[in-house]
Amino acid sequence: MSEINVTPMVDVMLVLMIIFMVSAPLLTVGVPIDLPQTSANPLNEEKEPLTITVNTKGEVFLQETPVAVEDLAPRLIAITNSGYEERIYVRGDRNVNYGQVMKVMGTLSGAGFRRVALVTELEQGS
User: Fold this and answer.
1) Helix spans in the chain (H)
2) What is the pLDDT of residues 10-44, one digit of tens each?
3) d(CA 39, CA 112)
4) 93-115, pLDDT tens digit by residue?
5) Where would I find the beta strands (DSSP E) of 39-125?
6) Cβ atoms of residues 96 and 58 within 8 Å
7) What's a Pfam family in this record (predicted)?
8) CB–CB of 114/107 below 8 Å?
9) Among 12, 44, 112, 117, which one is least packed by beta carbons within 10 Å?
10) How far is CA 51 from CA 3, 55, 92, in A?
11) Backbone dihedral region of 58: left (phi > 0), alpha (psi from -120 to 50 degrees) or beta?
């Protein structure tokens, strides 16, 4: 009589589950910032949007890659597959200079991108 030993399979599955539980929170947008809060409803998107982040030091990131403001428009034009109708999210730290965020948004608008949105956190207590 032959039997299947499932103990090694269970061990492997438990290890994989722990690895995925630890790594899943790290898969979110990688530039840590303190977003302003608002009571607006969240947008629902099917695919991952392009995200531009401005941190407290005024550094600009395209997804998780640092980029100069002057290089932002050419890089976006090169990577957008739906042209100027691509949805672009701008994440600005609540402590960053307002002028730096407006410089980024002006660069996007000047390049022809019209679907630019600001990202905030949902207000606590709402």
Assistant:
1) 7-23, 69-79, 98-111
2) 999 999 998 888 877 666 555 566 656 666 565 56
3) 29
4) 878 888 888 888 888 888 888 87
5) 50-54, 60-62, 65-66, 88-92, 116-118, 121-122
6) yes
7) ExbD
8) no
9) 44
10) 53, 13, 11
11) left
